[in-house]
Amino acid sequence: MELLNLLFPNLMQKLPEFYQAIIDTFVMVGISGGISFVLGIILGVTLIVTQPGGILERREVYQFIDKAINTFRSIPFIILLTLLLPVTRIVVGTGIGVKGAIIPLVFGIVPFFSRQVESALTEIGTGVIEAAQAMGLSPWEVIFKVYLRESIAPLVRATTLTTISLIGLTAMAGAVGAGGLGDFAIRYGHNRFQEDVTVGTVIVLVAIVCLIQFLGNRLAAKNTH
């Protein structure tokens, strides 16, 4: 404790706020990540099955989703935060804090994750899909029993990468008062020139990212066959 007080004097005086910032970050990642996981899987699968030559080919559906994803991916997240502020206020009643960050985070990460899911499912060769159809499997059975089941490992890796990116977005959202570690670092580390707060926040973020990457790698390895 004496060493920590020596190295991080300002941070140690704000431990309750620091702990709350960590909790807020996990809440934002958990809620927006859960929503984004479901939407990303749905959109990624839809892109694969409705693309030209897909098992449920629908060119108009594919083109619409593809263009929508490209549009949102092209918008810098900091601009997206401002752009969605009226929508966020209508849906959750506020544009700041943890609640105010959920919708922008979802809009910011779903397009990214959808592309990751699309890429993961693309690893399933067309020969496998054709063989499954030849065996009499319906399109829905092909989706669940072939595409999703056989892509668990790449989907885990995609989820890991997306979660790490989402943590980065929560830190960026702190620039507009979204709460969490990003807001904590900006409020004290940057605005009050307390460098030890910034360094301590970065250390915690790096530790969280390393832990997520480690768990993701282990889970992906267990599902690789």
TrEMBL record:
Annotated ABC transmembrane type-1 domain residues: 22-216
Pfam families reported for this sequence: BPD_transp_1
Keywords tagged on the record: Cell membrane, Membrane, Transmembrane, Transmembrane helix, Transport
Membrane topology: Multi-pass membrane protein
Lineage start: Bacteria, Bacillati, Bacillota, Negativicutes, Selenomonadales
Cellular component aspect of the GO annotation: plasma membrane
Family: Belongs to the binding-protein-dependent transport system permease family. CysTW subfamily.
Chief localisation class: membrane
One GO term of the biological process aspect: D-methionine transmembrane transport
Transmembrane segments: 20-50, 71-90, 96-114, 155-177, 197-216
Cellular compartment(s): Cell membrane
Protein name: D-methionine transport system permease protein
